[in-house]
Amino acid sequence: MRAAVFERYGELAEVREVPDPSPAPHGVVVRVEATGLCRSDWHGWMGHDPDISLPHVPGHELAGVVEAVGSRVERWRPGDRVTVPFVCACGTCRACAAGQQQVCERQTQPGFTHWGSFADYVALDHADVNLVALPEDLSFATAASLGCRFATAYRAVVAHGRVAAGEWVAVYGCGGVGLSAVMIAAASGARVVALDLSPQALDLARSFGAAHCVQVTASDVDDPAAVVRELTGGGAHVSLDALGSPPTCAASVRSLRRRGRHVQVGLLPQDALVPMSRVIGLELELLGSHGMAAHAYPPMLDLVGSGVLRPDLLVTAVIPLNAAPAALAAMGRAGGTGGVTIIAP
Predict the structure, then answer these.
(1) Which long-range contacts (CB under 8 A, 24 or more apart) does 224-231 make?
(2) Which of 252, 268, 248 is nearest to 260 (CA)?
(3) Same domain, yes or no: 59 and 118
(4) What percent of the chain has pLDDT over 90?
């Protein structure tokens, strides 16, 4: 099969022929029809993830068709249209027994713990626990956008943020996960303040229901949190850092009103600082969001099927596998256009 392989961190990947994967007894091999290009892939390519060993194939947001099944798989057959959360759970640990597969104690992640979906085929573990059947009318490109960014944003807004109609929600970073959060929060009846460097990304946020869009630049907005507090009459009820940088994390916390909820979605370096004096003084909640278990997908898919949520509108570019190495390298540049890029092998 063809796959985008990198041999060293930070060096351009190469699309080349590699051996086809085989399914584990509990797993499947999926023919990749679409896979998302995510900032988490860029973090892995840069060497920020200790689970990755070289050489490596990135890619963790995917949709496709089951090609082969392991001997112990009961629920799936070749030809099934599927997607999968980026966290593949074991199904038997204490977290899984409690229904919290997104924090499985023995999780695997395609594109991180093993080779991922920037390829013609990808192996997935514990298929009976992790695969999600796709409606026939849901395109592979749209389905691929669900597995990491949209599902993570959905759970961050609905389960962790507990967003209610009429509340103010601030979203820092309007890439794929941030725009997903804007759309989901607006559909929940919240009033959204979207913040980003890119005017194009903010245009998308506005079209997805943001009440206010703030272009954050060094010259125009020195203190984005102060702007949010002014726009919301004292601070947001919920604020999400969808980018994952120390400044956006701190600004998100400073954007909150008393007893507000901060949800960290974007990956952060280990030395990130949080303004804890404000957390204590205003009794703020700090929450992390790490994807969504496969069993929690049906309510989200129902909203997608009814047209309340439109993840298809987030897909702003579709590229071939040969273009993936350069596109992956470009993920580290600030000020993108927002939206989701899909690779169609």
Answers:
(1) 224/172, 224/195, 224/251, 224/255, 225/251, 225/252, 225/254, 225/255, 226/254, 228/170, 228/193, 228/195, 228/255, 229/254, 229/255, 229/257, 231/193
(2) 252
(3) yes
(4) 86
Q: Between 333 and 275, name the one with better pLDDT.
A: 275
Domain count, the chain: 2
Q: Is the dihedral of CA 215, 221, 226, 227 positive or negative?
A: negative
Mean pLDDT, the chain, rounded, equals 94
User: Model confidence at 147, in pLDDT bands (50, 70, 90)?
Assistant: confident
Q: What is the pLDDT of residues 104-117, one digit of tens each?
A: 999 999 999 999 99
Instruction: Check residue 321 and report its DSSP letter.
Output: G
pLDDT at residue 199 is higher than 70: yes
Side chain identity, residue 142: T
Domain assignment present for 6: yes
Output the CA angle 178-179-181, nearest 5 degrees.
65
Same domain, 124 and 198: no
* Statement: residue 135 has pLDDT above 80: yes
Angle between helices 224-231 and 246-254 (to 10 degrees): 30
Task: Tell me, yes or no, whether 328 and 245 share the same domain.
Answer: no
pTM, two decimals, is 0.91
Cα 341 to its chain centre, rounded Å, is 12
| Residue 250 lies in domain | 153-288
Closest listed residue to residue 69, CA positions, set 27, 130, 126, 117? 27
**Alpha-carbon distances of 219 from 92, 216, 222, 344, rounded to whole Å:** 52, 8, 7, 39
Task: State the number of CA atoms in the 13 A half-sphere of 68 facing the CB.
Answer: 12
Give the separation between CA 345 and CA 342, rounded to whole angstroms: 10
Task: Inform me whether the pLDDT recorded for 336 exceeds 70.
Answer: no
